[in-house]
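**User:** My hope is that you can spare some time for a protein that puzzles me. As I understand it, each token names a local backbone shape. I would be glad if you read both lines and explained how they fit together. The protein I mean follows directly.
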Amino acid sequence: MYKNIGDVRQEFLNFFKRKGHEIVLGSTLIPNNDQTLLFTNSGMNQFKNVFLGIDKPLFRRVATAQRCVRAGGKHNDLDNVGYTERHLTFFEMLGNFSFGDYFKDEAIQFAWELLTDPHWFNLPKNKLWVTVHSRDCESYDIWVKKIDIPNEHVVKIGSNINDFCDSDNFWQMGNVGPCGPCSEIFYDHGDRFYGGPPGSLEGFGERYVEIWNLVFMEFYRQENGLLLSLPMFSVDTGMGLERITSILQGVHSSYSIDIFKKLISSISEIVQVNDDIYMNRSLYVIADHIRACSFLIQDGVIPSNEGRGYVLRRIIRRAILHGKRLGINDIFFYKLVTPLIEHMNHIAELLYASKNFIEKILITEEKLFEDTLKRGLELLEKQLVQLTGNILKGEIAFYLYDTYGLPLELTKDICLKRGIHVDQVGFDRSMIIQKKCTKASNKFDATCENISRCDISNIFIGYNELICKSRVIALFQENKLVNKISSEEEGIVILNSTPFYGESGGQIGDCGQLKTTSGVFQVTNTKKYGQIIGHLGIVKSGAINFGEEIVAQVDQYKRKNISLNHSATHLLRAALFHILGPHVIQKGSLVNDRYLRFDFYHHEAMQNKQINKVENIVNEKIWENFPIAVDEMPIEVARNSGVVMLRNKQYDKIVRVLSMGNFSTELCGGTHATRTGEIGVFVITKEYGIASGIRRIEAVTSDVALSIIHHYKMLLQNIFQSLQSDDKNVLTKISECKSRCRKLEKEIEYLRDKQTIQHSLSFIRDIYYVKDIRVLIKQVTNMAPKTLISTADCLKCKLKSGVIVLINIHKNNKINLVVAVTKDLIERNRINALDLVHCIINTLGGKGGGKPDLAQAGINNMVPISKVSIEVDSLLHDIL
């Protein structure tokens, strides 16, 4: 029985290290340069290019403990969390990999040894079942004939359409690429749980749980479906750490293992609810989701309305809603980061430095969701009051879910208390129609093609004005022209003139308010529909009517920050061109009020010196305080004068040219500062690749940049305090610490060797006689060469007269031995160490040499370890 999850994790790695595997650190949750994956969802992700044959493996045998998230894309367990005993959004995947080294035989035997050997996991053999592909006779024979597992515990899994690839026991990376049959290992929890063996009709139950999947990649699948044999057969395995820990700790649920019990207990104390996890599944969800959210934020994912950020936002909101089920009405989710770090101490060092940042993100997101959820619940209440029958339309339930994050379960609970049913079919139909969940603004954007076709136009005056009087010339709701938008209703307002900037050119749309004598419209986004600028939002009070006069007011603070970041983007592009060269071409950008993002062509990762030079140049231009000038000119004049413009883009005949001194001149329709000095300060926060030959830089300016500088300043001060140093000698102090560590490591190594040698003296009790000569043959493991020789010398002194043979077995099964002979036997010309080594080499194979009193040999790897001692003993009997 293992004490904690950390022990299980380490035992797995130790086992495979002894089997010659290199222990490789897991990758981040954001797949590196892999646009096909939302998150890292298995241990093999970081080795994908090796399996594809793009990269050569650094090691032939590898083992990892990889943190994974399965909450989006092909592998999505999010909706199952809290309702089953083993599904998690965040977990660690234990895996061992072979790249053209061992294959089915060794992989299966390694798995069986680790699971059943008394020195390792020691699981009862009769509790284990396995599945194999119905046509994989080789794996079946290994299990039955070599492992000696009963026939009835090996299940062949085929397919219903006689397609080799169409089977639960056939794994493939994609429609094209490496693939192969797999063998899955299951654990039988006993008949107190429902369920049948794997492959049976009852196989979905909780009795038989899959714990390990061994994938044998031996084919390459072509586009036409044909399978070609790979030149390099490989092994990819995966075992969920939490799942195997539950078995080793004697519990049936992943949520009952040590780490979850402690975390759930801490959560219950913080939120002050009963921690009876068997009665309260919401605690399952919250405990799982704080793990997923914290590690996602740590690895660079920020809540947003698209991609990874959207999934993170959904996980956060799901946890908050389950908190409300427990009666928690206060902001609480961020408080769980501290106990998470405390209880996940086996990998929590990753979170320590980011603790405050993670908490801040969670606080901000929870406050935002509180406002959104409140509006959703108010709208639901309004719909229920107006309802004439006892069925709520599925389309309405989906709209509340899609726009306000109101889960269908919550809507059903509220309706059930009033005797109202929700149209599930209608909800499902709406979900199918709109596969991607977006906010109402994006929903309107996707369905408002009629706006751009309308015979109306408006004028943008927002370069110089942030507030103006205007008139409502059109109103839209769900792609239809309407005459009025009432209180708490959403829609799109078109004005004849507007100071609001419509999202384009990488710059986000403006927010703000539209006020009439009869109502207030909160603008949450501004978009362009062809040449028409539309204001998306919700009526906060009263109503907005067609034809009304209106006062349009942009959120000035947000616009200012957007403009500063946009101006900084131009300076960044020019600085990159100056430092990296003329090949730097813009491939995309994003400018909002919090940060800027710039994508560009470049063949390799930027060096730190290059990043610093770019940052310095941008700041120099900021402090020179250039005026930011705007001119309008014909496109041909701009093109002939060398103005920077995007390739393959259609421009109007008259274009807007933005200049910052003689440093940057570009075409741009966005909003900007009036002078570069207004930007204040510029800090690059990230530089990374997003596709082949395309790099991305993220940066911040003004107040946000200053806060980051303060953060690093505090970090440096903490380092100074820890080292009792200052900025003048901190590097010296660090160097001294490293030197001291190396010295201590050498002392530890010396003491460890001394301890090993001291322990080896106990071998004396195992001596025996061959004729009248005392003989000691002993197997040792992973002993350093120097220690091995020193041990032989010490034993020789202790023995005084005799022959010592130490057989050293390394982690990769390599064998070398040392033979030592005492002086008295050599002087009597009866025997010497060199002769013995030569005899051993002649019999067992290998190479060796040495002196009469001490000689060494490396033994052929083909000799079974178990037979080496027997062979050496037999040789000594023959020689002596």
Observations:
- The longest helix spans residues 355-386.
- Confidence is low (pLDDT under 50) at residues 436-449.
- The chain has 25 helices and 36 strands.
- The chain has six domains: 5-256, 258-382, 387-438, 441-554, 563-710, 757-879.
